[in-house]
Design a protein that fits this description.
With 454 residues, the chain is mainly alpha-helical. It is globular. The strands form six sheets. It has a two-stranded parallel ribbon. It contains 19 helices and twelve strands. Among the domains are: 113 residues, no CATH class; 113 residues, Cytochrome c-like domain (Cytochrome Bc1 Complex, Chain D, domain 2, Orthogonal Bundle), CATH 1.10.760.10.
Length: 454
């Protein structure tokens, strides 16, 4: 072989070596990639992934709680025409309209984080007319009115409909900007909200009257009787607007926080958190969805519900059912708020804790840490020395053992399901008499301090 042939042979050998090396590297990369795919992800990555999914689910639930109407604008806007009363005649609606001052006066709240800085400064400087319904429309466009969702025409000039969300009744604000305006407090019951007055503004209440089998004048009388912080969920089931003593049959709006680990969470039981969410979204908010409860077929107890087949509700489009899991997840994550440090006497509260767990026998039913009973947390009316009116409006005919955490945050409007006890002291006195506890004045005072510390 000549010199030229030898050079070719060597080049070919080097080329074969290079190709083999590249192939080996490629194969090694493939094997490495396969190994990377086949090996389980590091634990911290798995935990991060689960946390990310949980956080996303939480955010979805929060969005539903705050902003989802479940399609109920077809009822509040389309049927009752409530949006026309909000915008007023000057803005294409009817009547005087609802100004921000009027809205705040009936307990509606404004999310300050939705207000642009320039607008906030103008409000502070008194340059925004809070007596003008047009300002309310501007706030609705900003999605700043808590629990109320405005829908506008394509050009944005006129309110075309309005819907409500869970946050209307079960959120408030911290008043950090002004009374009724501030950062959201989800889960807190809005005890300023006058639902009856707001619904009573609707130009067309005839559908409600037809549902109840009454006239519009009677419907308005019933709604006007509710007052701030109250709502009557059973009205649209049994048609009872007033108690035997002539007072409203409405009950206090309950908190939606501190419900984790608790079975029946309404005053008279009914069902679990997802049950009640489905019940309210379909039958009270009048959203578009599906709901089943054959107990509502009882024409003697629930004549309105039975007559309208409410226990077997089906909509052409279900805008509710798919959202119940995330909504429940968010609600169960809402912890009861801690009381301000200066809102109770810690020394007296410590003594009250001993009364609560001992002589007062409170802990027998209000079991820590949920401060209600694990499992079936319902009692017959006579067990708690009270009348059966509200209990009789429910399927089980019982009252729930109320969870006690966060009591301080919803003292407005009173205590008990209907607010009949103005103070916690009145509640303690009721049980002192009911159970013959013979608590001294000091023991009762200490017990109240403990309740305020929860």
């Amino acid at each position: 072989m000549g010199p030229d042939g030898e050079r070719v042979r060597r080049r070919f050998a080097r080329l074969r070596g290079l190709v083999a090396a590249v192939a080996l590297i490629s194969l090694g990369g493939a094997v490495f990639s396969l190994a990377a795919v086949s090996k389980p992800a590091p634990k911290h990555h798995a935990k991060a992934s689960k946390r990310t999914r949980a956080e996303a689910f939480f955010r979805t639930g929060r969005r539903i709680f705050r902003h989802d109407t479940f399609g109920d604008e077809q009822f509040w806007g389309g049927t009752l025409q409530l949006h026309t009363a909000i915008e007023g005649q000057a803005n294409g609606g009817v009547g005087p309209g609802v100004s921000p001052k009027t809205a705040l006066a009936v307990g509606l709240k404004v999310d300050a984080t939705r207000i642009p800085r320039a607008v906030a400064k103008a409000i502070k400087a008194g340059k925004v007319n809070l007596d003008d319904p047009a300002t309310t429309l501007a706030l609705l466009k900003l999605d700043a009115v808590v629990g109320v969702k405005g829908h506008f025409t394509a050009n944005g000039k006129q309110l075309s409909s309005v819907g409500i969300t869970c946050a209307l009744c079960h959120s408030t604000v911290d008043d950090s900007f002004a009374p009724g305006i501030g950062r959201r407090r989800d889960g807190w019951p809005n005890r300023d909200l006058d639902v009856g007055t707001i619904v009573g503004l609707s130009p067309n209440l005839q559908p409600v009257a037809d549902l109840l089998g009454a006239d519009v004048a009677t419907v308005k009388k019933v709604l006007a009787g509710w007052g701030p912080g109250k709502f009557d969920a059973e009205l649209f089931l049994d048609g009872k607007g007033f108690r035997p003593d002539g007072k409203t049959a409405a009950t206090l709006i309950p908190p939606a926080f501190g419900l984790a680990g608790i079975d029946r969470h309404t005053y008279t039981g009914w069902g679990s958190v997802p049950y009640w969410n489905a019940f309210v979204a379909n039958l009270e908010m009048h959203g578009q969805g599906s709901f089943t409860d054959p107990r509502l077929d009882d024409a003697q107890k629930f004549p309105v519900a039975a007559r309208n087949n409410m226990g077997h509700t089906r909509s052409a489009r279900d805008l509710i059912t798919s959202k119940l899991p995330a909504l429940q997840f968010y609600q169960l994550a809402l912890k009861a708020p801690r009381p301000p440090q200066d809102s109770f006497d810690p020394v007296a509260a410590k003594r009250g804790k001993a009364i609560f767990e001992g002589k007062g026998t409170c802990a027998g039913c209000h079991v820590k840490p949920t401060f209600t009973e694990p499992g079936y947390n319902l009692h017959r009316p006579e067990e708690v020395c009270t009348d059966s009116f509200q209990a009789d409006r429910s399927p089980d005919g019982r009252y729930r053992t109320t969870p006690l955490r966060g009591l301080w945050s919803h003292a407005k409007g009173g205590f008990w399901h209907d607010g009949r006890f103005a103070t916690l002291g009145d509640v303690v006195e009721h049980y002192n008499s009911c159970f013959g506890l013979n608590l001294s004045a000091g023991e009762k005072s200490d017990l109240v301090q403990y309740l305020q510390s929860l």
